[in-house]
C-alpha cells in the first residue's frame, strides 16, 4: 500500500488544454501530466524559467484522474485588437513583434490594427478527483510539502487557464492504495450511481474493458514544447460495482 | 500575524434586459452549470471595462508620485548591481547613466548623486525589467576601466538597443502590472498578471428573450411608403450575476516595484514600497463595484453598482464561492423566504460558514450589502471604507 495525495478540481470552468493550433484552444477529457506539474509548481512558487525543477517534478509524478461528473464542453469566443507595431521587449536586446501583413487595416487614429478571433474550449461544471504520488518519495518536494503548498500556495491556483479558479479547497486528503487505479476506485466516491471514467498510467492496475493508449502530455520545460509518448489506460466503472 | 497575500473579491450585480457579452453568433454568452444553463460574462470582457473606464477611480488617475518612484527604482538598481560585486561608486555611475540616457527621464541632463536620483519620469519597472537592467549594468561595469567609461558604455548600450528599451518602457505600465502583457517568445521578459478574474454567471437559470425590433425610415414614411426599412432581432438577458476576482498581492508588488515576490512582505521592505500596490487595490475595488460591462449600452443602459461586495484577505488557497450556486436558485420561492437577492446572499453566507467549519481557514473579511443580511465572520461597511481597508492591509502587510 502506498500513500496517494488527492486533489479536487471543481469550478464552473476548467480547461485541460490539448494541442492548440492557430486560434483554436482545444481541450482534452483528462488533465495532462504537464498541467498537474505546472499547477503544483505554481503552488510551490517556482518561476517558469526554473525548467529543470519542473522537468524533475514531472518525471517523478504518477498521476491519475477520475471524472466525478459528466463532461460538458463549452466554446468561448473572444476577440482581441492587435496593432501592427505592437512589440514586446526581450532580454536579448531586440524587441519582438509580428510581421507586417495586408490583414491590418487603417483605424481612424492612423494606426493599423486587426481583430483577432480566438476560440477557447472549456469544461463547464466539471468535478474531477486527481490522485498522485511521487517516485522517489523521499526527495524534495515530498507529498507532504505539496499538500502544504496547495493549502498555502505562493500564487492563486488555477485549473488550466487563469480565469478557471477553483471553487473548493484543492488539497483533498490522502488515500492508501495498492496502485493508482485502486486509489481512484476507492477514494471519496460520491453517492451517485454514475459511471465514472478514469485515466491512470499503464502498469498501475487494469480494469475490465479498459484500453491502453499512448498520450503526448509531457512538456519539455527547457524547450517549452510537448513531446514523447507515455502509455496510459482509460476505463470506467460504477461505484456499485466496486461496493459489491 | 496573517499576511494579506491574496485578496478575494466576491460581487453580486443585477442587470435587467441587457446584452452584456455575446458570442460569434451574436447570442448572449452562456454557461451550463449544475442543473441549469446560465448567462455569462467572460473575464476578458470584465477586465476590458475596468481597464478603459475613465472615472475618479480609473487606473489612469492613480497619480504615481514620480520623483519618489524614480529615485527608489534607481537606488534599487544600484543596490542590486553592488550585490553582484560591483563597487558602490561604479554602481552609482551606472544608475546615473541609465537616468541620463533616458530610461527614467527625458534625458540630456547631466545631474549627479542625489539630484540624479531625485528627478525623472517614473517607469513602473517590474522584476523582469530590473533583472535585465541590473545584468546589463553589471556586465558593462565589469569591463569598464572607470566611472566615466562606464557611463559612456551604458549610454551606448541603451542607444544601441533603443527600440528594445522603448518596448520595455511601453510594456511597463500599470495595466500590464495588473493584467499581464503581450508575451514574446522570451520567458525571462514575461510579466504575469496579478489579477485573476473568473467568468461571472447568473445565480439562477438563464432568463433570455428575443428582442424583435424594426427600423422605421422616417423619409420613406413621409413619402407614403408602408412598412419598415429593416427587421432585426437580438437577445436580451436579465440576471443576478456572481463575480469573483483574486488579487495576487506579492505579484502585484513585484510588477510595480521590481521587488522579488518573497521579499514583498519582509521586514526589510518598507511599507512605502507597498503604497502604490495598496492604492491599486483600492481603485480596483471601486472599479469592480461600480463599472458595468456591456454591449448595446445606448439601447439597454446596462449600468449597475454591486448590490453586494465581500472582500476576504489572507494567505490560504483562494477559492471562489461559485459552489453556492452550483444548483441554480429558483426564480420564485414557494416559502416566501425573501427576494432572490436576499436568498442569493443567504446562500453565499451559508457557503462561507460551511467552508469555515470544514477548513477553518482564517481570513479577514468585510462586506457591503444593500439588504439586511449578515455574513459569517465579516464586518459590514460601505464601499469607501471597504476599499480603504483593502489598501491599508496591503500597505501594512497584515490583516
Automatic annotation (TrEMBL), chain A:
It comes from the Bacteria. Keywords: Antiviral defense. InterPro entries: CRISPR-assoc_prot_Cas5 (IPR021124), CRISPR-assoc_prot_Cas5_N (IPR013422), CRISPR-assoc_prot_CasD (IPR010147). This is Type I-E CRISPR-associated protein Cas5/CasD. It comes from Aromatoleum bremense. The lineage of its organism: Bacteria, Pseudomonadati, Pseudomonadota, Betaproteobacteria, Rhodocyclales.
Automatic annotation (TrEMBL), chain B:
NCBIfam families: casC_Cse4. It holds the Pfam family Cas_CT1975. It comes from the Bacteria. This is Type I-E CRISPR-associated protein Cas7/Cse4/CasC. It comes from Aromatoleum bremense.
